[in-house]
Amino acid sequence: MTDYYVGKKEYFPKIGAIKYEGPKSANPLAFKYYNPEKMVGKKKMRDHLRFAVAYWHSFCADGTDPFGTVTHLHPWVSDAASPMEAAEHKLDAAFEFFTKLGVQFYCFHDRDMAPEGSSPGESEKNLFSMVAKAKKLQRATGVKLLWGTANLFNNPRYMNGAATNPEFGVLAIAANQVKAAIDATIELGGQGYTFWGGREGYMSLLNTDLKKEKDHLGRFLGLARDYARKQGFKGPFYVEPKPMEPTKHQYDYDVETVALFLKTYNLDKDFKVNIEANHAELAGHDFFHELETAAALGIFGSVDANRGDFINGWDTDQFPLSYYETALAMYAILRAGGFTAGGLNFDAKIRRNSIDPADLFLAHIGGMDAFAVGLEVAVRIINDGIIPGFVKKRYASYNTGDGAKFANGQLSFTDLAKLGGEKYGRAGLSSGKQEYLENVFNQYLLGL
Ligand code: XLS
Ligand code: CA
Ligand code: CA
Fold first, then answer.
1. Rounded to an integer, what distance in angstroms lies between the CA atom of residue 390 and that of residue 329?
2. What are the sequence ranges of the domains in the chain?
3. Centroid of ligand 1 to alpha carbon of 122 (angstroms)
4. What spacing in Å lies between the alpha carbon of 302 and ligand 3's midpoint?
5. What are the pLDDT digits (tens) for 161-204?
6. Which of 14, 90, 125, 176 would disulfide-bridge 76, Cβ 3.0–4.6 Å?
7. pTM value?
8. Is the CB–ligand 1 distance for residue 254 below 6 Å?
């Protein structure tokens, strides 16, 4: 009896189920901090973190970069006689990996799971034949779909955009593709559905009617939502902010921009954000900023857990490793109420020269351990109340007296000005205590 799935062939034969062995373990293929069954507060670690594997990076990407060809020679591709057979083998390999790693969820694009056919109808047929297999594997293993999405960026027809394409025909084909991806997500019990506007943006404003494109995108998302709701889909829709790449400027630039877009097109009741750490950095923010902003605007949904590189400014999609970053992230996520339908999806890839089968495991183990540490640090910070208490106290003047009247909307601007002129001459001279708080935060990293 094994506690993992193996199809007709074992794709990671030298690796068994990854277990928690504790911080002193020297076994690289073991968790040092992620102990799925451990209770942290009222929930098990696994239920706080809701880890997902990204199908595209882990099973489709082959190490190709702009300067070189394939370095990851996946056995699930090389042992197949046709693209559909490769897709089936890939699904077997993926479920073997999910269950050996012990994650509860995965995420996919339609084209990750099944190859595109020569017509929209054939593509849909391919997709649904793979969805049937995925459904069986989900049932057999208990692994669930965190979210599904459509790849509206790879095919050359999307070079000028999908829902923002100047040509109506492309928008219609995109709708056909999204409809099938939504149907597939529903069929697989997906907990959410994501839109990432890969090519929804512009390369030059000289050839772009920006207002028209945004209007079309808003209408497209509204129609897709209405369709999904009609089919009984109850989960959240996510827009995933990214400021640039592949376009010079993407319409879903950052959380704040997406929030305004959602409000403008009446999408804000059904849509939330899927925040990716690396995209936050590309937007000139940090991960913590984007999470806090989403929480403040009531649109926090899910997370693509990864990181960029300190010294270069592109989407390197590396696995998250910094305890400081994961602690800040979990501090924001827990205070936003934690995950409901969302989770931590490792939208991250191993490097081009990481070619051992074990490397994919090692990368995920590192990311899962980093978030387990972040979770425990954040829980301690919240429970002790020193940092949140400081912030609360900092705003205490709005809880009573004149400040409370202002907060409750009981003061006119003239009232305010009068108070300012007569009563508060000495206000404002108090330290923000940033260095103190940063030091306290650091202390928690090693277990205050
Ligand atoms: C690309 C995006 C993409 C989305 C899903 O940069 O991160 O992978 O997460 O379409
Ligand atoms: Ca992403
Ligand atoms: Ca990315």
1. 19
2. 19-384, 387-445
3. 24
4. 14
5. 999 999 999 999 999 999 999 999 999 999 999 999 999 999 99
6. 90
7. 0.97
8. no
